[in-house]
Amino acid sequence: MKLFSITLILIALSGLLAYTNPDLKHYDQFISQQITEKARKEKNPLAGALDSLLGGFAANLMTQQTIRKDYVFFSTYDTVLGNEHIQAVGILNNFYITEKPKFKKDR
Q1: Most buried residue, 35, 49, 61, 104, by CB count within 10 Å?
Q2: What is the pLDDT of residues 14-31, one digit of tens each?
Q3: Could you count the other beta carbons within 10 Å of the beta carbon of residue 4?
């Protein structure tokens, strides 16, 4: 009976992971949300407003540059931005950024 219960729990957990594996559309929404949040934190109100307006467009362009690898229970996302990469893992309808780009600031 104990083995049967453990088997059912593992099957249910596997089904949950497979069902909540986010797709590229969800990644696009995640990137757009990240850009909007960074725009809200911007000290320059004009730059923040511009980032908010162009956030969806930028997210769409980034998504087009993204390679998604689907592993049934989770997915990995690799976005190429010139020489930089953003890598993320999508699991349970959430995204976790594993590598952020290191853009150089000119000053």
Answers
A1: 35
A2: 999 999 999 999 998 898
A3: 8
Comparing C-alpha atoms, which of 83, 54, 68, 82 is closest to residue 25?
68
- Residue pair 95/88 in contact by the 8 Å Cβ criterion: yes
Q: Name the DSSP letter for residue 1.
A: -
User: Alpha-carbon distance 22 to 32, whole Å?
Assistant: 15
- The amino acid present at 77, given as its one-letter code, is Y
| β-strands 84-91, 75-81 pairing | antiparallel
SS (H, E, C) the chain: CHHHHHHHHHHHHHHHHHHCCCCHHHHHHHHHHHHHHHHHCCCCHHHHHHHHHHHHHHHHHHHHCEEEEECCCCEEEEEEECCEEEEEEEECCEEEEEECCCCCCCC
